[in-house]
């Protein structure tokens, strides 16, 4: 399906270029009007990211997100600085559909395994953001500021024992660039991990990118900057993913 994405830094909609906090662009949008329009058009879920919380877990924008979640009828998945069971419970109590765990899946693997068991695989998305070096998919964490030695395949294998279902995979080199998605990456991982519902993220700039991603077999495509900059409309994007 099509999942519109909004990243927020200090209460403002923003896009980073390849995750770089020094290379950012803010957008002046009426979020509530946009959500109403998306609901009418048939959007099934919206992706929100707390970039303030990602950079510093002490700076979570909880009251800001509480207002957003309260004012929309579209299910929300949210990520950014979610590190503890308390964080997860807080967002579920606010009414989100799914929480997104990134850094914790690497730094606190056993806890994340436990949370998959407690909350169920439909309620948790693992965000596995990668730098591809010599075809090795190395995961980066902490707002992509720290590279790890963990690979995408290792982490999916580790959590598959707890019925991992949802994985958001971003090729960091593509994020926020409008340079086109990494089609080869998604073809490869969809073929390898047939039990995973992959969410593709990064690089979408035109409708043909969406069509190409659908052909890879990914479950969803997350679209941020191209919708914010009106490269195409949400209606046109949804029409590229019929019968969702």
TrEMBL record:
Subcellular location: Cytoplasm
Main location: cytoplasm
Keyword Secreted among record annotations: no
Pathway: Amino-acid biosynthesis; L-histidine biosynthesis; L-histidine from 5-phospho-alpha-D-ribose 1-diphosphate: step 4/9
Family annotation (CDD domains): HisA (cd04732)
GO cellular component, one term: cytoplasm
Family statement drawn from the similarity comment of this UniProt entry: Belongs to the HisA/HisF family.
Protein name, as recorded: 1-(5-phosphoribosyl)-5-[(5-phosphoribosylamino)methylideneamino] imidazole-4-carboxamide isomerase
Gene source species: Buchnera aphidicola
């Amino acid at each position: 399906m099509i999942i519109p994405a909004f990243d927020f830094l200090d209460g403002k909609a923003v896009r980073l270029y390849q995750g770089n906090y020094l290379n950012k662009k803010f957008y002046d949008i009426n979020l509530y009007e946009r959500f109403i329009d998306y609901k009418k058009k048939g959007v099934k879920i919206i992706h929100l990211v707390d970039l303030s919380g990602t950079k510093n877990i002490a700076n979570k924008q909880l009251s800001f997100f509480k207002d957003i979640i309260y004012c929309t009828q579209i299910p929300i998945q949210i990520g950014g600085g979610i590190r503890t069971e308390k964080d997860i419970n807080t967002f579920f109590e606010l009414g989100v559909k799914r929480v997104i765990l990134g850094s914790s899946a690497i730094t606190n693997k056993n806890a994340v395994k436990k949370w998959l068991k407690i909350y169920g695989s439909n309620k948790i998305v693992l965000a596995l953001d990668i730098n591809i070096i010599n075809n090795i998919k190395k995961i980066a964490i902490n707002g992509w500021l720290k590279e790890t030695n963990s690979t995408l395949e290792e982490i999916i294998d580790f959590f598959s024992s707890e019925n991992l279902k949802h994985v958001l995979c971003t090729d960091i080199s593509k994020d926020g660039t409008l340079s086109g998605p990494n089609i080869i990456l998604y073809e490869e991982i969809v073929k390898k991990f047939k039990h995973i519902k992959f969410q593709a993220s990064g690089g979408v700039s035109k409708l043909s990118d969406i069509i190409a991603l659908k052909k890879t077999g990914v479950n969803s495509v997350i679209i941020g900057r191209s919708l914010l900059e009106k490269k195409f409309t949400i209606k046109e994007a949804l029409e590229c993913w019929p019968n969702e």
